[in-house]
Amino acid sequence: MLSPMPKIDSLNVLKVPHYYGHRRRLRQRFLLDPIALPDYEILELLLYWVFPRKDVKPEAKTLIQEMGSLGCVMGTVTLQSHPGLFFALQLIQEISRRILLEDLKKGPILNNSEKVIEYCRLMMMHLSVEQFRLFFLDRKYHLIQDEIQQWGTLDQVPLYPREVLRRALELNASNLILVHNHPSGDPKPSSADIELTRHLQISLFPFTIRVLDHFIVGKNGYFSFREHSLLMEKR
């Protein structure tokens, strides 16, 4: 004897979460004109992929309100506070980093400072502590390697000329671009920044390794030692 068919609650079958229609409309708006979407809706679209069965609009709004901006959300979300979102943001940042790095490696970057700045702002602008990055270049100003040299504190980061020289010789680099960030947002160099740069230049001169520029990046822009004539000329 056949078992009776289970009863189907037609109301439950047809019932779908209220935010499904909103998601569809938001995706359509994004495809038509992504620039028109406010920051919280961009974040909302990202959160959809992290939490596919959750209404994430309230969380997106809350994150923007609490942290101040989309950029601050990307820079302050941690693995402990929002693990799913943190992973998604890290993945997006790494994809963006590789795309920008490919562009940097296409040719000499001596006169393409805007590409270096774009890359460094992506990687460093929203850090809560100072970080020193070094771009090692060959004689024709092609990028050999981009590396984090040191991590520091809220308002200072050490840089040791001996370690910089050792790494430059290992990579057979002839030129360097220095980059560090100011978490305060103001990219203007301190007297310690200027003194450190000069000391490093003096240390590298005997080995014919040049410092082509020193960039400081912050939320409010960037500062170039070369553009402001703060680099020592080799004699």
Give keywords:
15% strand; five-stranded mixed β-sheet; 9 helices; alpha+beta; 235 residues
Descriptive notes:
The chain contains 9 helices and 5 strands, in the order H-H-H-H-H-H-H-E-E-H-E-H-E-E. With 235 residues, the protein is of the alpha+beta class. A 5-stranded mixed sheet has the order 2-1-3-4-5, with helices on both faces. 23% of the residues are buried.
What is the total tally of β strands?
A: 5
Arrangement of strands in the largest sheet: 2-1-3-4-5
| Mean of residue pLDDT values | 85
Parts with pLDDT < 50 across at least 5 consecutive residues: none
Shape: elongated
- Amino- and carboxy-terminal Cα gap: 101 Å
**What is the chain-wise order of helices and strands?**
HHHHHHHEEHEHEE
Classification by helices and strands: alpha+beta
Short overview:
With 235 residues, this protein is α+β, with helices and mostly antiparallel strands. 46% of the residues lie in helices and 15% in strands.
List the helices and strands and how they pair.
Blueprint: H1 10-14, H2 19-32, H3 39-50, H4 57-67, H5 70-76, H6 83-104, H7 113-124, E1 131-137, E2 143-151, H8 161-170, E3 175-181, H9 191-204, E4 210-218, E5 221-224
Helix pairs in contact: 2-3, 3-4, 6-7, 8-9
